From TrEMBL:
<keyword id="KW-0067">ATP-binding</keyword>
<dbReference type="Pfam" id="PF02518">
    <property type="entry name" value="HATPase_c"/>
</dbReference>
<dbReference type="GO" id="GO:0004740">
    <property type="term" value="F:pyruvate dehydrogenase (acetyl-transferring) kinase activity"/>
</dbReference>
<protein>
    <recommendedName>
        <fullName>Protein-serine/threonine kinase</fullName>
        <ecNumber>2.7.11.-</ecNumber>
    </recommendedName>
</protein>
<dbReference type="InterPro" id="IPR039028">
    <property type="entry name" value="BCKD/PDK"/>
</dbReference>
<dbReference type="InterPro" id="IPR036784">
    <property type="entry name" value="AK/P_DHK_N_sf"/>
</dbReference>
<dbReference type="InterPro" id="IPR003594">
    <property type="entry name" value="HATPase_dom"/>
</dbReference>
<feature type="compositionally biased region" description="Low complexity">
    <location>
        <begin position="326"/>
        <end position="349"/>
    </location>
</feature>
<dbReference type="InterPro" id="IPR018955">
    <property type="entry name" value="BCDHK/PDK_N"/>
</dbReference>
<keyword id="KW-0496">Mitochondrion</keyword>
<dbReference type="GO" id="GO:0005759">
    <property type="term" value="C:mitochondrial matrix"/>
</dbReference>
<comment type="similarity">
    <text>Belongs to the PDK/BCKDK protein kinase family.</text>
</comment>
<feature type="domain" description="Histidine kinase">
    <location>
        <begin position="273"/>
        <end position="448"/>
    </location>
</feature>
<keyword id="KW-0809">Transit peptide</keyword>
<dbReference type="Pfam" id="PF10436">
    <property type="entry name" value="BCDHK_Adom3"/>
</dbReference>
<keyword id="KW-0418">Kinase</keyword>
<keyword id="KW-0808">Transferase</keyword>
Length: 451
């Protein structure tokens, strides 16, 4: 079965931060300590107002606009203010979405923790919202806020998963899938925006500045702009993920299937390695396990890479709506991000990866449900025995080079992979021949040549 394989992995923290402090709730507002140690109130109407703010579109070109690090002072401050312009509304929309859940769901301690984490992050950003960041000192303080935000939301997905597991008697699976699909897509953008500026900050410091005391993790290869690899070769990531999945298979089954890469293995484009690594690992886990358990381990996993020609970005841009989904914008009207940033439009590069296995295909009764977040595979005893050590293994954006994972048995692998693929206009399509094997088509929409 294609969805059966799951793994537990550790993640590498990219930025040093501390745990969020304690909070308490009042009836009309939320009061707690922000990163500076001062109490802050977030009124309900303020959250509603921010949540209703039109969402700016986010593209890879936006994240690349500020240039290669080290950035100049003006470029670094522009990146900080761009980041600040996007985050408050995104956090507020997630708070509003949690408030719209049934009260008995939000009362769950795990769901309540997520709710207060978002309030904590929003409160930390509000003091900066009414003014621009104009000095290096303000930018450094803002970086501390972003680092706290990234750390605070590190375990959002496993905590949400446990909360919905414990509350599944009070909400139907369709509503859970709908909420998670929207929430996790929005989370991808929020963390990406924050981590992009953090990476640009750390790689733009003078040699004599604070970065010399930091971990080497803060230094990116020259082809990186923040968390984006401008010369990413999917074939290299596929080989890296193959090694990892093969080791798991050899430990569990005593065999490791072969993987053959064809098509255009030298194809490259600008994209986020950690996103592609998560997707490829999940798809290879499914293909490898199906191949072995069907007794066809001598048959190779065939991976074909096809790069589409570069196309100008004067086509209708894909924009994110208030629910974290994407729609085509008007061809004649530039997005808000284009108006405010004024970046030059690079070319768009699409790469499609086909993963073909001889694992017997997906059972017909399972196929209609492969894109749903499943919460029925755990029994009550399983739930009691599933400790936080296992749940903490699910983190969906640790940083460049960080390993990612999913909760075994919960069916998060494929829907999360699709969320990552679709975030910048890509897709995942599955074609199964029951009794024979499965073809998975992963299309990634990146950016072509970067000058």
């Amino acid at each position: 079965m294609m969805l059966a394989a799951r793994r537990n992995l550790g993640t590498r923290r990219l930025f040093p931060t501390s745990q969020p402090p304690s909070r308490c709730i009042s009836s009309t507002a939320t009061r707690y300590y922000n990163w500076t140690g001062h109490t802050t109130n977030v009124a309900r109407d303020e959250v509603a107002h921010l949540a209703a703010t039109p969402r700016r579109s986010l593209t890879l070109a936006d994240l690349l606009h500020h240039g290669r690090p080290p950035l100049s002072k003006d470029a670094l401050l522009a990146s900080a203010n761009f980041t600040l312009s996007l985050l408050p509304a995104r956090l507020a929309s997630r708070i509003q979405a949690l408030r719209n859940l049934p009260f008995i769901i939000v009362s769950n301690p795990h769901m309540s923790k997520i709710y207060h984490n978002y309030l904590h992050s929003l409160s930390s950003l509000l003091p900066y919202q009414q003014r621009k960041i104009t000095t290096f000192e303000e930018e450094k303080q803002f970086v501390n806020v972003l680092a706290d935000l990234v750390q605070t939301h590190t375990n959002t997905i496993p905590v949400l998963a446990r909360g919905f597991l414990e509350s599944r008697k009070y909400i139907n699976p369709e509503d859970v899938t709908r909420f998670l699909d929207t929430h996790l897509r929005a989370r991808i953008g929020t963390r990406l925006i924050a981590e992009q500026h953090l990476a640009l900050h750390y790689t733009s410091q003078p040699v004599s500045d604070e970065v010399t005391e930091k971990s080497d993790d803060h230094f990116s290869p020259s082809n990186y702009i923040g968390v984006i690899d401008t010369a990413l070769q999917p074939a290299r990531i596929i080989r890296s993920c193959e090694d990892f999945v093969s080791e798991i298979c050899e430990l569990k089954y005593g065999v490791r299937p072969r993987l053959e890469i064809g098509g255009e293995p030298d194809a490259s484009f600008a994209h986020i390695p950690v996103h592609i690594e998560y997707i490829i690992t999940e798809l290879l886990k499914n293909a490898f396990r199906a191949t072995i358990e069907s007794g066809n381990e001598r048959e190779p996993i065939e991976v074909t890479i096809a790069a589409a020609p570069d196309v100008p970005r004067n086509v209708r841009p894909i924009q994110e709506d208030s629910d974290g989904r994407f729609q085509f914008a008007s061809q004649s009207e530039p997005s808000a991000a284009q108006e405010s940033i004024g970046y030059s439009s690079p070319s768009s590069q699409s790469i499609t990866i086909r993963i073909r296995d001889r694992g017997g295909g997906i059972p017909p009764e399972v196929l209609p449900h492969i894109w749903s977040y499943s919460f029925t595979t755990f029994s009550e005893m399983d739930l009691e025995n599933t400790e936080s050590a296992n749940l903490r293994t699910l983190d969906t954006l640790a940083g460049p080079g960080g390993r990612l994972s999913s909760i075994a048995g919960l069916g998060y692998g494929l829907p999360l992979s699709r969320a990552y693929a679709e975030y910048f206009g890509g897709s995942i399509a599955v074609q199964s021949l029951w009794g024979w094997g499965t073809d998975v088509y992963l299309t990634l929409q990146g950016v072509g040549k970067i000058d």
